[in-house]
Specification:
The chain is 27% helix and 32% strand. The protein is of the alpha+beta class.
């Protein structure tokens, strides 16, 4: 994921292999002005929905720009060289074993934002419908940051629907945990070394001290339900601007095997569906122990700055992070043993440099 503030130029971002009909077809679509969306379902039910979406022209882009919507069944499977960054729809569907999430796929070789596609078409997509792009040039980040993403990034957004607004803020933690566990599963099942991907609260993924991914969840309340669009970005094969999973993997093992985008996202949905059911039926506290093993912050000492209005000065106090509160903020203990809740100030790019303390009764 590339932040626009540090924009880099990439050549041939949208090139596709030339050895199949599908590759040539999609390449031609990219050269034309309309955005191309390829629809595919896991079963007959989802494929029928895909046909309806195509025939009724029900999918729209937020800016109203034209679309080319095609069915995956109408084009041949894309033959690609390993790790060329082109998403293989059929490989993903073969690895997916969910009953709800990820079963209707919207794929695009090049797209402004997967998050905008699912949020703008939320009512047309089934719960769990997912949009994936090879290249994303106007992705959404926290605090309205815009992200460019070249090939080699795993970029997708999917739909969730919830009724209890009190636990909606916690769903981003379930998404983060599902991704770290999915990476563990893929490495284990493929005989690869373990990659110690960790969660930096609230929604970043880190490996060897560098950011390799992030999660963005937005919600809209409508008809007594929260329509949540969850976006995930993960550096799998692109080494810039920080590092990526496969670069770290190559340092750990001489084997030529590398992580594939399709395996990771399929493993994510397989894991997320299980975690989500636990989260809804038993609460996040059932997942907390595993979450705390994965995040970076247990026992972390942080400095909280507070302005003294009378003295017009800023005081600094050290607190120790203990976990999460029921509302999803950081639970901390002061040096004199008082518990408090830490909130981001909404201005700092790094959450831990702008924490606001609130005492808990």
């Amino acid at each position: 994921m590339l932040k626009v503030g540090a924009r880099r130029r990439f050549q041939n971002l949208t090139s596709l292999p030339n050895n199949s009909f599908a590759s040539i077809f999609l390449a031609k679509m990219e050269l034309q002005s309309p955005t191309t969306l390829v629809l595919c379902g896991k079963s007959t039910v989802e494929n029928e929905l895909a046909r309806c979406l195509k025939s009724n022209n029900r999918l729209k882009l937020p800016d109203g720009s034209p679309l080319n919507v095609v069915l995956n069944s109408d084009i041949e499977c894309i033959d690609r060289t390993e790790n060329d960054g082109t998403f293989c729809v059929n490989s993903y569907m073969s690895a997916l074993s969910t009953s709800r999430f990820g079963r209707l796929l919207v794929y695009s070789p090049k797209l402004a934002s997967t998050h905008d596609v699912v949020s703008h078409n939320f009512e047309e997509l089934p719960v769990g419908g997912v949009c994936v792009a090879d290249v994303q040039f106007k992705g959404r980040g926290r605090s309205k940051n815009v992200w460019e993403s070249p090939k080699g990034c795993l970029m997708y957004s999917f739909t969730i629907q919830m009724e209890d607004g009190r636990v909606v803020p916690l769903v981003q933690y379930v998404v983060s945990l599902a991704m770290t566990e999915a990476i563990n599963d893929v490495c284990r099942n493929s005989g690869m070394p373990h990659l110690n991907v960790r969660i930096k609260w609230p929604n970043d993924l880190y490996l060897d001290g560098a950011k390799v991914g992030g999660i963005l969840c937005t919600s809209v309340y409508k008809s007594k339900k929260f329509n949540i669009s969850s976006g995930v970005g993960l550096n799998v094969s692109n080494q810039k601007p920080t590092t990526c999973l496969n670069s770290v993997l190559q340092r750990l093992t001489p084997c030529a095997h590398q992580l594939q985008l399709e395996d990771i996202i399929a493993a994510f949905f397989n894991k997320f569906e299980s975690f989500y059911d636990i989260f809804i039926n038993q609460g996040f506290q059932t997942l907390e122990e595993l979450y705390y093993k994965t995040w970076l912050h247990s026992g972390q000492r942080v400095i909280v700055q507070e302005k003294n209005e009378k003295r017009e000065s800023i005081s600094e106090d050290a607190v120790i992070i203990q976990g999460l509160t029921t509302s999803g903020y950081l639970l901390a203990v002061t040096e004199d043993g008082q518990t408090c809740e830490l909130h981001p100030d909404g201005n700092s790019f790094d959450f831990f440099k702008g924490l606001v303390r609130r005492k808990l009764t």
